[in-house]
Amino acid sequence: MMINRRDFAKTLAAAPLALAPFMRARAQGGPYPSRPIQLVVGFPPGQASDTVARLIAKSMSDVLKQPIFINNKVGAAGIVANVFVKNSPADGYTLLLSSSGPLAINPALYQKLPYNPAKDYEAVALLDTSVEFLSTARNMPVNNLQEMIAYVKERPGKVSYGSSGYGTTAHIMMEMLKKATGMQITHVPYKGSAPMVIDLMAERVQFAFDTSSSILPQVKAGKLKTLGVSSGERDPVVPDVPTIAEQGVPGFDAAAWSGILAPAGTPAAVIEKLNAAANHALGTPEVKRHYALLGSLIDGGSADHFAQFLKKEQVKWGRAVKDSGAHMD
After folding, report:
1. Under CATH, to which class is 132-247 assigned?
2. How does strand 68-72 pair with strand 132-137?
3. CATH code of the domain occupying 37-130+255-324
4. Is 210:135 a contact under the CB 8 Å cutoff?
5. Rounded Cα gap, residues 66 and 194, in angstroms
6. Alpha carbon distance 133, 225 (integer Å)
7. What is the 3-state secondary structure of 305-318?
8. Which residues pair with residue 133 across a beta bridge?
9. Which of 15, 44, 230, 244 gives 132 a disulfide partner, CB atoms 3.0 to 4.6 angstroms apart?
10. What one-character DSSP code corresponds to residue 101?
11. Mean pLDDT by 10 residues, the chain (329 residues)
12. CA 128 to CA 291: how far, in whole Å?
């Protein structure tokens, strides 16, 4: 049988195109996911965010039929974890669990940040929001926001507030409140919530914002009292605590939050699978119970919902950082 050289050349030229889907599938190991996934967390093992990450990962792995292991990349206010994921392949096998600090505060706080939250990641799913409580020691002669303002203004330069660290949501929240009320109050940053709460109870610092998991146990123990909640609406866990906005600061609405992201360029189909798995995890009884204990509100929703939320939060926190004057070289 004679072979037409022209037809044979065409067949050879078309072969790579015909084989391309097969070769891609083989290179990727078949349909996603075909191997274990790592979830990078910028918090140390045992902290609330790390515990949540492990619960979420376990439930997501049940849906995706692949193990998801936690890789704790701690350091530099979340920068280490964010940079690691930014530089990882955009194939869905390296994910990031990050929060309002690294994603919305750091871009305005750091002069030279080695990642850009608006360009370097794909939003996967918003996990939760956590309101913070303005608090003081039980024996302080202050019972609401207006009394706090009066107390501080009567003692200019002599009152301090604590935070879990420079540039954290708690720090910037108080700076927002200072600007809105004209208070002059000195910031004392700590390395985490635990030592700050100890000093707050001992009145070595007089006021602080912190999450319900840090504050409410001490309120129940009679060592602290809450003056207000940071969100625009009251917290359903403690509905008797008024918001900051209700107490004379209209529009005050701030909360910490966390979510899952992937490197920029991760395929949309992969993002969709991950989003579905994350939403499944958020609906499981075990995860719901854990968030209830933390006093955090479950969010979820589409990847686009998280992407739009991120844009708004970056504007809000960026403005707050600029107004506060806080910066890191």
Report:
1. alpha beta
2. unpaired
3. 3.40.190.150
4. yes
5. 36
6. 9
7. HHHHHHHHHHHHHH
8. 210, 229
9. 230
10. I
11. 45 43 45 97 84 94 96 89 97 96 93 94 96 96 97 95 90 93 94 91 97 91 96 90 96 93 98 98 94 87 97 93 82
12. 8
